[in-house]
């Protein structure tokens, strides 16, 4: 969790994502809108939220419409990260009627997914309030969408785990097998980082108390992950570690069990479900009116 990963609008990864999404959806042109709507016609539309949640992705929506038609302006009624209720209008869009309809599905796909992630994250964060545990994400993101999935987690009140394989060392079970044990894996990683003058934190995944004990004999570890520990065992592991390094709980944690996990004293709880099986927030775009430009060809 080194350098923050930019604001979405200044981030070239996001504009490329939006371009790809629009190319995928529009292809050679929006046949329906081009047939029905004059090129110069103007329109107004409102984004309507149909269920309570946390909004995330308005910056991306603005970018979608900007790429569809420069004339379109987005007037936000809420800010990213804010809670909304069913029936709330979250933004108004005005400009080219064709442009609004061209961007509609792509804009909704982004904001529904991001708001769904932010909403789920906020539920988990609320469930662990007062425990000192922070909710964090994983790399179980939709391929290509990680920058937005991770932004949505932050907007929902979570913190980001490593962004990719290049910004943190995370020694997992397969690495431990390949190295022939935790101690050797840690040593090899420390030597590798030192030889390349790379600064990165080191986390080790453990599956039982014996592995926790082995990890505690190693120097240079920043965080120990307790993978699929039962709460009682997790509590004992946290006691053994005794704040010498950060502790992360991982593995099949649900909204029902997250409070119990937080109360064992861990620092971080990673939840794959935030991004790997999220349900989009129900948001629609309703065209409220269109006005003819006066030079119709009909």
Characterise this structure.
The protein has 298 residues and is of the alpha/beta class. The chain folds into two domains: 8-120 and 279-291, Alpha-Beta Complex (Aldehyde Oxidoreductase, domain 3); 125-276, TIM Barrel (Alpha-Beta Barrel). 41% of the residues lie in helices and 19% in strands. The chain has a six-stranded parallel sheet. It has a four-stranded antiparallel sheet with strand order 3-5-1-12, with helices on one face. A two-stranded antiparallel sheet has the order 2-4. Strand 10, helix 10 (258-262) and strand 11 (268-270) form a beta-alpha-beta unit. The longest helix is centred in the middle third of the chain and has 31 residues, at 97-127. The protein is elongated. The protein starts with 11 loop residues before the first helix and ends in a 7-residue tail after the last strand. Residues 1-6 have low confidence and may be disordered.
Q: How would you briefly describe this protein structure?
A:
By secondary structure, the protein is an alpha/beta fold.
